[in-house]
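Work Package 3 committed the consortium to producing structural models of liganded targets before the mid-term review. Because experimental data for this complex are still outstanding, the team generated a predictive model from sequence and the ligand definition alone, so that downstream docking and mutagenesis planning could proceed in parallel. The input record is reproduced below exactly as it was submitted to the modelling pipeline, together with the SMILES string for pyridoxal-5'-phosphate.
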Amino acid sequence: MNKTELQSLAKKHGTPLVIIDHDQIRRNYNEFRRHLPKVQCYFAVKANAEPTIIRTLYQAGASFDVASLPEFMLVYENIKKLPAKARQDFIWDKIIYANPVKPKETLLELDKYKPLVTFDNLAELEKIKKYAPHAGVVVRLAVANTGSQCELSNKFGCSPGEAVDLILAAFKMGLIVEGISFHVGSQCTNFQNFVQALNMAAAVIKETQERGGHEIKIVDIGGGFPAPYNQHVKPFGELARVINAEIDRLFDKNIQIIAEPGRFLVASAATAIARITGKAIREGKRCYYIDDSVYHTYSGIIFDHCQYPLKAFKSGKKEVCAVFGQTCDGLDVISQSELLPNLEIEDLVYSEKIGAYSNASATFFNGFPPAKVIHVNA
Ligand SMILES: Cc1ncc(COP(=O)(O)O)c(C=O)c1O
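The resulting structure, written out as tokens with the ligand in place, is given here.
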């Protein structure tokens, strides 16, 4: 979107505002499909759970990774009117519940939909057997997250040896292990993480066949596909070439490859606009206060270790300044070193590529509600 369109939307809707461009979401989805044609694309809903985004991706033909019952129901909303058989086929073929640890109430509820669910330990497997015996299971491996913006293997995944033991234990319990999954860490710009993880998955498949005679049908390569936040992020096509080569080399062509991109599909589709509500000079540095915060649209600064450069609509000589959020918390610093021209109270600033893990984790802290979200080209 150009600056004039952004400004007129801010005028119409007020600030703080998040503008989500669905043409960009479709472009991202098509780019993913074009570069990884053999990989089924499950949108990781957690990255931005706006129902309109889910609808756009549903209409584009996407599959979905959900990690809580409310996320599952957001996807279900799109299929609830399908005939029973088509609905059940969609759940089986196009939804994965990819949170390796689930409360028993969730499992009980999920069981009637017979989805794919992930696990990475024996206690979880026993819970699945007891409360969701009709689910298909997918074992999650811990893989290198080296250099990724957000680490995930600190919390989830088992070693390759454990994985084979767990797979054999699951089959012994009468569960069907459909696949193996991993996550290389979010915003993974180190493509070797994918290479190592794919090799690890292939080794687990081979050992499972040798030790138990079981065939694994699915390899889930997780998320981590980097959004183009800056010029240091290599083009998606380069990563896709590496992944395609490894997939062709390592796996039988009957194995289905799936992926769970979150950030890649939505990050570049949103722009946040905020208004300057105060300004001061502190220790010689110009400081601006805006009507959004790290507890709101800019929450990714804290939770996602992400930075969103701020831009002004006004031109003029730029100088280094600090930008603070609207809450009373000293933690609420959007940037200590932003290059902006001299701005006045009521002027607008904006951040691009703020569609992933941003409004999704906004709170009502300090009495300020989350920014208004609007959808264009939806
Ligand atoms: C299991 C799982 N899959 C997919 C994702 C989406 O990852 P990304 O946004 O890096 O593509 C996450 C993110 O936390 C996740 O935990």
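Reviewers should note the following from the model. The two ends are 14 Å apart (CA to CA). These observations will guide the Year 2 experiments.
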